[in-house]
Amino acid sequence: MSVHFGKKIKEIRKKNNLTQLEFAQIFGYKDKSMIAHIEKGETEMSNDKIALLIDKFNIDANELFLEKKIYDDKNYVKRIRKYLGDQKIILNCAGGIVEKDGKILFQRRTDNDKWGLPGGLLELNETYLEAAIREIKEETGLDVRPKYFLGIFHNHNMVWGNGDKAHTIGAYYVFEIEGGDLKIDEESSELKFCSKEEVPPLFAPDHIKAVEAYYKGIKNTIFEA
User: Which residues, at least 6 apart from 50, have a Cβ–Cβ distance to it below 8 Å?
Assistant: First the structure.
């Protein structure tokens, strides 16, 4: 995976033992959500804040902007947002239902404090399955292998915490665990396995449809959410 600007920001923050909230407060952000979006490459850092970053943390500007250029060349979503702002665009994502002892795994997200399935946006040159496995590893710490393809699920009205809008097309798989240890990352505030009766309220229509399809035994389908 290429080094990019968002990862450089995260590296600087962690090197200085700062939480996302502490880092956000340095730049005058009211909460940690903006830093979370910057680190994931979903939002740009303004020039004045980049200047503050360079000055406060004594960063080599050439290295920082080299990293940023590499990132800009790779991240098509960021380039699109540069021209379209928060207007609705089409994005591809992938995720899955992770099984364990008759229960499935749910994630409470830090950006909206709501429950959903683990998953996220595809990176360039990545397949749906590769993206789903990568996202689950990043967000849960678990290594998984696919049991079967559940289906394609649309969400026509996805809105992120920063106001960005999208029609997301998500490929969802059913996975079993083959290794790793369950642990939250900065995108998750809580992870838990739930039975059918314990499923929490889910924030996204495509996640709701995916869980419904799973419990109905449906496979290889397309749902319009």
Answer: 64
What range defines the domain where residue 48 resides? 5-84
pLDDT-flagged residues of the chain (< 50):
1-3, 66-74
Q: Report d(CA 132, CA 124) in Å as an integer.
A: 14
Choose the catalytic residue: 11, 176, 190, 212: 190
Residue-wise pLDDT for 182-197, tens only, equals 988 777 889 999 999 9
Q: Which residue has the tokens 């502490």?
A: 22
Do 120 and 50 lie in one domain? The reply is: no
Q: Is 67 an active-site residue?
A: no
Torsion from C-alpha of 18, 188, 139, 69, nearest 10 degrees = -50
Tokens 């080094």 sit on residue: 3
Question: Two tokens at 15?
Answer: 């090197």
